[in-house]
Structures are given as structure tokens and as C-alpha cells.
Write a structure and sequence with these properties.
144 residues; 2 domains; 7 strands; 31% strand
């Protein structure tokens, strides 16, 4: 799958889902400075977070982390590469199914579930590559 933005990662959850922002660092063109979680208005749902992002179209999101009520956490760096930690296997599989439904493949789910601990790379040509670690992926793809 291609890299996802923070907003794309959030889109896997219902808009009314309660959240708590635990880390937020961004560049703000309005304030011409860094802003952090303490500078934000009260945001307690994914819908309110989307509304805030819409009101700040030139926000340069650097570090972001939220606790998602009854689900787990989501974090991103440089507005990409969402990292999810789920409280339950069911929530993990539910979110995985939502992500896979957007790209239209069924093989990816079984590949991921059958290979715990591996880094799975789904490519635009629909091939699936498996690596023993993220570093293994970087090395195999000449990033290291």
C-alpha cells in the first residue's frame, strides 16, 4: 500500500469516535512558529480533528499521536506513515479490512495475518513482498 497521510489513517475510524491528542507538533503559517498540543482548541472527536485540519490548510504536521477510545493509538511523523497500536486483535483486523477494501485485494489480509512480525510490502503491480524487518525492506530496496 502506498504511504498514508495522517488524515487517511484517521479515515478508518468513525467520525464520532472520541480521541485524546497525546502529542502534536507542527509548523503553523498563521503563527509563523511551532505549535503543540497545548496550543490547540479543545478537540475530542475525529470529526473535530478533521474540522481543525480543514481550518488550517497549510499546517505542517511533524509529530502527531492520539489515543482512540476503546481502540488504541495512532501516531504519524511528517504527516505520513501512520502507526497503529490496537487494544484487541478484532480492532486490528477491522481496521485492516477497511484499508484493504480501499485497494481492492483479498490476498493482502491473509498474507499479513499469516506472517506476524514481518514487514509486508504491497506494491502497485499487486505483488506482495515479505521482509523479516523494516530494515530488511530498506536494505532490499537500496535505502540503506
Amino acid at each position: 500500500m502506498n504511504e498514508l497521510s495522517t488524515r487517511q489513517g484517521l479515515s478508518y475510524f468513525a467520525l464520532e469516535t472520541n480521541i485524546e491528542i497525546t502529542d502534536f507538533e507542527a509548523q503553523s503559517y498563521k503563527q509563523n512558529d511551532w505549535i503543540s498540543a497545548k496550543d490547540l482548541p479543545c478537540i475530542s472527536t475525529i470529526q473535530e480533528l478533521f474540522s481543525y485540519f480543514k481550518s488550517e490548510p497549510k499546517l505542517g504536521l511533524i509529530d502527531f499521536e492520539i489515543a482512540i477510545e476503546n481502540i488504541g493509538t495512532m501516531s504519524t511523523h511528517d504527516d505520513g506513515e501512520p502507526n497503529f497500536i490496537f487494544k484487541s486483535k478484532e480492532e486490528c483486523i477491522s481496521t485492516l479490512e477497511k484499508a484493504i477494501s480501499k485497494i481492492g485485494t483479498k490476498n493482502l489480509k491473509s498474507e499479513i495475518l499469516d506472517n506476524p512480525g514481518f514487514f509486508i510490502d504491497y506494491r502497485t503491480d499487486e505483488s506482495i513482498m515479505k521482509y523479516d524487518s523494516f530494515d530488511g525492506y530498506l536494505k532490499a530496496n537500496s535505502y540503506l
